[in-house]
Write a structure and sequence with these properties.
Layout lengths: L1 E2 L2 H8 L3 E6 L2 E6 L5 E5 L13 H14 L6 E9 L2 E8 L4 E2 H7 L5 H17 L2 E3 L7 E3 L5 E3 L5 E3 L6 H12 L2 H4 L4 H10 L1
InterPro entries: Kinase-like_dom_sf
Protein name: Toluene tolerance protein
Length: about 200
Amino acid sequence: MQLLSEEQFESWRLDARVLEKDRYGEKVLLLTDGTMLKLFRRKSWFSKTLFFPPAERFAANAAALRKLDVPCPQVISTYKLLNPYRSVVHYQPLAGETLRSLLKTDPSLDQQHLFAQLASFITSLHDKGVYFRSLHLGNIVLTPDGQLGLIDISDLRCLGKSLNRNMRKRNYRHLLRYDSDFSLAIPAARDLLREHH
């Protein structure tokens, strides 16, 4: 990770659009060139993030997913910002719309087809050893060429072998607990995913 100077950060931030923030500050910035900065705070001074910062984990996961042919963001660089401390990843976002956004905005969406594609995609992730505890419809993107891909990938793990049955079930349980997502979906959508889990 490179050191990100306050001057460089402020120059990026000047005309950036804040996409996500919390009470600790900005979390995701869309820069004027279309790239993004994601900032991670350290939640405690002594934690595993001290040795493997989330920005580096994001970059490592992006590289692992690309080897597995899973569409995901393209990392440009990782940084550390000292005041306040943040680990920062600079990346080219994955083009497309999240499934959550599509369900909210596209009344012509063929949900039956989309959820069948989603079930196949998740099975393929599990077969490739990708374990994503934060999997939800806001983290899955439909790309312009009709593929599904992943974003917000800092807390997934690529295990190098097919997931066992229990891990698959836990992954699906997590996905299905987002009632606000499935309230927008046809009733058969949840059933289709339950069949796979």
